Amino acid sequence: MFGLKGAQIRDISTRVRKTDNAIEVYGIKGGENNRLLADSLKHSDFFHVSELFSLKDLFNARVHFGHKKGCRNRLMEPYIFGCRLEQDIIDLDQSVLHLQQALNFTAHCAYRKGIILFVSRIRQFAHLIEKTAKESGEYAHARYWQGGLLTNAHVQYGTGIHLPDLIIFLSTMNNIFEQHVAVRDAAKMNIPTVGIVDSNCNPTLITYPIPGNDDSPSAVKLYCKLFKMTILRAKDKRRQMDLLHGIQEELTE
Amino acid sequence: MKASMPYAFLSLAKVRDLLRSGVMKESEKPCWYDVYAAFPPTREPVYQKQKERFGKVQDPVQAIFYQEDLIRAKFYEVYGNGPRPFELTQSNFVSTCQSFASGGSQDAGKRDPVLDLTLQDLLKGLQEDQEEQAQKEGRLQTQDEA
């Protein structure tokens, strides 16, 4: 299983690749591949991620519920619609836009065979997140985060390590209500982040924040479902395009 | 000093400059670079610390209240918690207070005659209160504007 023991975290959270395969990985083989990747960027919604969900779905999954007024982080104020009897209500119009952007970005990263890492420190959803990551063919780290996992990777896991290309946070807080160390470390290591930011989180360091509830099971299940669907959709599209262009590449999953 | 300087850990400009100067080779170009350039986020991820609020500053987040809240408040003041408990398992459940509040504004089907009479009185009282408040607010607003 994922991340059960310290030694196993190495196998799961980072994919070791040899440096001579780096060119193949990034697909800078020839004009054909470049055209494939460039074409995908021309459409505003190449993977039709906006069709995967609606505002009603977010409402039914209780994404708009924030924490109490006293827990609010001032930097979340632009994303909050209002305060109903001291409970913050997150603006779902903004959430829809941010979620579309985030899903679009994840889809493109998955299309380019990027490594995606799901991170969360909510113990209630650890199994769900690990299952989602397994089903979408990507990686998860829902357990205790060792300090140097990203910043000290070469020392801890040896040279030639390939760090994740995208980190998705199902919750940006850790168990003591502070920002997860991975948020800062990913920014340091030039890794873009997609994260669900609740009303008590600091959204400024996340590249593509998604204002929304990170505590309700219905909300987290919805996010996991959406991320899984986008990643699988992007990978299927990539396989289709490769076959169309006649390139024989096997996705290692 | 350090806290006030805005610092962007992850930025497209940084990676672009690294590529241009040759520090980062083309083969090492991150796969998200083109995607980020094509679809940038609404806000650049520059770190900001939460600024503390000193003194009496108005809360920028508005409080959510509805017109029905006045009727609900009156209902609970008069009748307490209501005759039957809330059935939260049903998503389309309508409580006594809710049917009372909505039934008062339009001509609904079944209505309790006793409650109906009290509702009429309550609504009249509420209307009078609202008119008084509106007059007071009108006066206050003209004072503010002047």
TrEMBL record, chain A:
Give me the Gene Ontology terms describing cellular component: mitochondrial inner membrane; mitochondrial small ribosomal subunit
What is the first-listed, main subcellular location in coarse terms? Answer: mitochondrion
- InterPro entries for the chain: Ribosomal_uS2, Ribosomal_uS2_bac/mit/plastid, Ribosomal_uS2_CS, Ribosomal_uS2_flav_dom_sf
Q: Which domain of life is it from?
A: Eukaryota
Q: Name one GO biological process term.
A: translation
Q: Does the keyword Chaperone apply?
A: no
Q: Write out the entry's keywords from A to Z.
A: Mitochondrion, Ribonucleoprotein, Ribosomal protein
Q: Where in the cell is it found?
A: Mitochondrion
An MF annotation (GO) of this entry: structural constituent of ribosome
Described function? Required for mitoribosome formation and stability, and mitochondrial translation.
What the record says about family reads: Belongs to the universal ribosomal protein uS2 family.
Database matches in PANTHER family: 30S RIBOSOMAL PROTEIN S2 PROKARYOTIC AND ORGANELLAR, SMALL RIBOSOMAL SUBUNIT PROTEIN US2M
Query: What is the protein name stated in its UniProt record?
Result: Small ribosomal subunit protein uS2m
Q: What is the lineage of its organism?
A: Eukaryota, Metazoa, Chordata, Craniata, Vertebrata
From TrEMBL, chain B:
Q: Where does it sit, as one GO cellular component term?
A: ribosome
What InterPro entries does the record point to? mS23_dom, mS23_dom_met, Ribosomal_mS23_met
Q: Name one GO molecular function term.
A: structural constituent of ribosome
A Pfam family that this protein carries is MRP-S23
Small ribosomal subunit protein mS23 conserved domain mapped to chain residues = 13-101
Main location (coarse class):
mitochondrion
Which family would the database say this protein is a member of?
Belongs to the mitochondrion-specific ribosomal protein mS23 family.
- The question of whether Ribosomal protein is a record keyword is answered with yes
What this protein is called in its record is Small ribosomal subunit protein mS23
- Keywords of the record: Mitochondrion, Ribonucleoprotein, Ribosomal protein
Where do the segments described as Disordered lie? 126-146
